[in-house]
Design goal:
Layout: E1 2-11, E2 14-24, E3 29-33, H1 40-47, E4 55-60, H2 71-74, E5 75-78, H3 90-100, H4 106-114, H5 130-142, E6 148-152, H6 160-175, E7 179-183, H7 187-193, E8 196-201, E9 204-210, H8 211-218, E10 222-226, H9 230-239, E11 243-247, E12 250-254, H10 258-267, E13 274-277, H11 282-300
Parallel strand pairs: 3-7, 3-8, 5-6, 6-7
Antiparallel strand pairs: 1-2, 1-4, 8-9, 10-12, 10-13, 11-12
Helix pairs in contact: 3-4, 4-5
This protein binds adenosine-5'-triphosphate.
Length: 301
């Protein structure tokens, strides 16, 4: 569990994080979203003790990260995959990390296997592609078999196969009961990977909710309707205030819940062949929600 309570960070006149409170629970993949400059990195840095809060607290498993005796065993982090020593061989990099955190050396082979890097283990990290460096960063995060994982843009630079692999891995780790917290600007990927979301804007909490709930709540009411009496039904729906447009082989009706459309059709003896509520994508919902946060930042800049 990650717990952030009334967390605030001020850099001079900039309020980067503003009285933020949320919990990231075990057993789920929780996505962390917000426009550029929203305060995500600052929040993550405070959680992992790289930056001190101005006020408030951030704990991991109930403790301040900086008081953890062997942090890698409690929390695995991937913050900047480019930040490793380029001259060091991948296996040596992991051995050194394991050694300095009291982790048995055999774990190095396990995480190399898990991340598909066994064949490349003797190569220098500086020769690695961005995707391989991401894998090595993930291997390092998993080294201590931690209950909590915090990953900033873990799929950055990965190809389609790599992205699918990370998705499966994170979902498996959550299914094992771990706490998985990740940020990404790739909305379609986030939609497929995360089951919960924390959204921030201008350093403040905008949403802390399940992925499905978030999309359903902000999708608006839109349905695809097909009927052999399409024209008559369209007229009836429009008369009730729906925004009715043609759609492939049917109609698209906005502004009325599916139940009401079904009731209108039934009341007029109209047969329905399809009545499907249409959900927006995470990207559409998220863009709508954060518009004000972006506008504010644009003006401030
Ligand atoms: N070390 C610092 N000194 C001064 N201002 C900072 C510092 N770090 C961050 N900020 C400011 O704090 C605000 C939040 O930045 P932060 O990097 O946390 O946002 P972010 O959500 O991670 O953005 P991005 O998606 O672009 O990575 C920004 O206005 C940024 O300019």
């Amino acid at each position: 569990m990650i717990e952030v309570t009334d967390l605030t960070k001020r850099y001079g006149n900039t309020l980067a994080v503003d009285a933020l409170s949320f919990r990231v629970r075990p057993g789920s993949v929780t996505g962390f979203l917000g426009p550029n400059g929203a305060g995500k990195s600052t929040t993550i840095r405070m959680i992992v003790g790289l930056d001190a809060p101005t006020t408030g607290t951030a704990t991991v498993g109930g403790r301040d990260y900086r008081t953890l005796p062997e942090p890698l065993r409690a929390v695995g982090t991937l913050l900047d995959a480019g930040a490793m020593h380029g001259g060091r061989r991948a296996r040596d990099h992991l051995r050194w990390l394991a050694h300095s955190n009291g982790i048995p050396a055999r774990r190095v082979g396990e995480v190399l296997d898990l991340t598909g890097l066994t064949a490349a283990a003797g190569r220098r990290a500086g020769e690695f592609s961005l995707g391989m460096r991401q894998r090595l960063g993930i291997a390092a995060a998993l080294l201590g078999d931690p209950a909590v994982l915090i990953l900033d843009e873990p799929v950055n630079g990965l190809d389609t196969e790599g992205i699918r692999w990370v998705r499966g891995l994170l979902r498996d780790l959550a299914a094992e009961g771990r706490t998985v917290f990740l940020s990404s600007h790739l909305m379609s990927e986030m939609e497929q990977t995360a089951d919960r979301l924390i959204v921030i804007g201008r350093g403040r909490l905008l949403a802390d909710t399940g992925m499905r709930e978030f999309i359903e709540r902000h999708s608006g009411e839109r349905c695809r309707v097909r009927s052999p009496e399409q024209v008559r039904l369209g007229g009836l729906l429009a008369a009730r205030g729906a925004d009715v447009r043609p759609d492939t082989g049917g109609l698209r009706a906005g502004g009325l819940p599916a139940a009401e459309i079904g009731a209108i059709a039934a009341a007029h003896g109209i047969v329905l062949h399809e009545l499907t509520p249409l959900l927006s994508s995470l990207e559409e919902v998220y863009t709508r929600m954060t518009e004000t946060a972006v506008e504010y930042r644009g003006r401030a800049a």
